[in-house]
Please model this.
Amino acid sequence: MTEIDAFKAKVESFIADQAMTPTQFGKQFAGDPLFVFQLRDGREPRTQTRQRILAAMEAYPTGVAA
Model:
């Protein structure tokens, strides 16, 4: 599994665990409502962007939907 694939899996898992829509996730964590849809279509965000999003996901309160 590549680093991009691992990132995608973490994002998808987070969305499912938090009962969040892809649009909500994109707006909140990437500032782009289409982020998850583009990620699913092959978008490969920069390492810095992935790290920022992963850090924000880790800091997100458990069980809280936006």
